[in-house]
Amino acid sequence: MISIGVVARLTGVEVSTLRKWESRYGFPNPVRRASGQRVYRPEDVAGVQAMAETAAHLVDHVFPPLPVRQWVLAVPKRLRYFLQADAALQGAVLRIFLSVVERCLHEHSPSSPADARIGAVAFIHRFGSSLNEHVHFHCCVIDGVFESAPDTNNAPDEASSVRFHAALELDAAAFADVQARVRTRVLSTFVRRGLIDKDDAAEMRAWAHDGGFSVDGSVRIEGADRTGLERLLRYCARPPFALEHLHQRDAEHLVYRNPKPVRGTAPRTRPAALVLTPLELITKIAALVPPPRVHRHRYYGVLAPNASLRAVVTALAPAAVPPAPTSAATREEPHHRAVSRYLWAMLLARIYEAFPLQCPICHASMRIIAFVNDLTAVGKVLDHIGESTQPPRIAPARGPPLWEAAAAAEQAGNDLQWDSSAQPAPEIEFDQRIAW
User: Fold this and answer.
1) What is the pLDDT of residues 24-49, one digit of tens each?
2) Any residues with CB less than 8 A from the CB of 66 and at least 6 apart, and which?
3) DSSP-derived 3-state class of residue 135
4) What per-residue confidence (pLDDT) applies to 329?
């Protein structure tokens, strides 16, 4: 178990922020000792580490000190089925959404030219709060547009070759207009790809509540509020579920506590807890795994990798990456290790459930002195601490538990009523060729 001070040093997240996350979002969920001290499990540290690394990189090296607005898009359930397994379709819908947002910012940015571009980082979420499949999009967009401005003073500073036009008077009417445009273009895309019919698309346009489409842009972070921007980015980069919400009820069932329960009548009912078998849990988690070679977050506009203004805009970030030294003689060793140097410790903590850089007696931080690679010395150390020097025996392969239960029931002579394919033959056969 790890103290809150050690977690703050490893992740770069302040103690007060960790406590605020615990009270607001239930993550991380520490264990309290008899003295009342908060202690954290290794998997909690790993989750905080991943969110903190992504958010810190974007705040320090990508986003300039300008206002940032979060745009969120959710689509009807009928369309989520196609989005869940098609990465190319997800990219198409995301491009439609960001292009409509760019048009909206153009209209609300006075004196902005037609070729001005936005800057955005988009996160594709494949999950809901109750381990359900729910593809939706979180986009952190700089609240305005950028244009390339010629350097009339021949100044060496790259920041003088770009001009920013802030967006003004974005209200609920602007959000509704974006939602209507996105709905029309997304439905047309699904019709063009042959996923739905034209009649179905026309019917969905006539549905109440905007046909199941939802666009929100009410969250806005000021340019000087870097702490608030980092909190927002950590929220967008969060994992699909939190391990502290998962508990084992007995040998065959697990309980997942829903962080956002909704009590009421169907279909908006979300129970406070889900009772799952291990196979059901694996099935739900496997459905949330993104396709291979798909990025967790994407850059758009002037922040895109090949954008001509990316280097100019990111140079405005408060902690832009300094240029590399030209010679080895001028290279200086950093005083503090980078966060990536400790990733091996996070992996060991997740596997062995023990934090290797914390003393088990005094709970102080430890540093590496040497690595023991000699087999004889390793064997003596294992014998001294009472561990076996032989590798563990590999268990034989076995089938899924449901198959074993079916085989056992068949050997016992039980009636397999659960098998839908074993239906009894009808007592009366009807001749379907007869036209009544």
Assistant:
1) 555 566 667 677 777 776 656 555 55
2) 142, 143, 144, 164, 166, 223, 316
3) strand
4) 43
Task: Decide which of 29 and 372 is more confident.
Answer: 372
Query: Which amino acid type is present at position 183?
Result: R
Q: What CA–CA distance (Å, rounded) separates 122 from 367?
A: 38
Residue 289: closest CA among 53, 131, 82, 413: 131
Q: How many residues does the chain have?
A: 436
Cα–Cα distances in angstroms (integers) from residue 25 to residues 4, 232, 305, in the given order? 17, 13, 33
pLDDT in tens, 107-155: 999 888 988 999 999 999 988 878 888 899 999 999 999 998 876 555 4
Residue 375 lies in a domain: no
Q: At what angle are helices 343-352 and 42-61 packed, to 10 degrees?
A: 150
Amino acid at 433: R
Residues near 406 by beta carbon (within 8 Å), at least 6 away in sequence:
416
For the chain, the C-alpha Rg in angstroms (whole number) is: 28
Catalogue the long-range contacts made by 131-134 (C-beta closer than 8 Å, 24 or more residues apart).
131/240, 131/241, 131/256, 131/274, 131/281, 131/284, 131/285, 131/288, 132/284, 133/80, 133/84, 133/287, 133/288, 134/74, 134/80
Q: Would 366 be classed as within a structural domain?
A: no
Q: With H, G, I as helix, E, B as strand and everything else as coil, classify residue 421.
A: coil
Helix (H), strand (E) at residue 400: none
> Does the residue 412 lie in any domain?
no
Q: Are 64 and 317 in contact (CB under 8 A)?
A: yes
Q: Partners of 204 in the beta sheet?
A: none
Alpha-carbon gap, residue 354 to 346, rounded angstroms: 10
Domain encompassing residue 167: 2-240+291-314
The CA distance from 236 to 251, in Å, is 35
Looking at the 3D structure of the chain, how many domains does it have? 1
What's the confidence (pLDDT) of residue 206?
A: 85
In a domain, 281, yes or no: no
To the question of pTM greater than 0.70 for the whole model, the response is: no
Under the banding of pLDDT at 50, 70 and 90, the label for residue 337 is very low
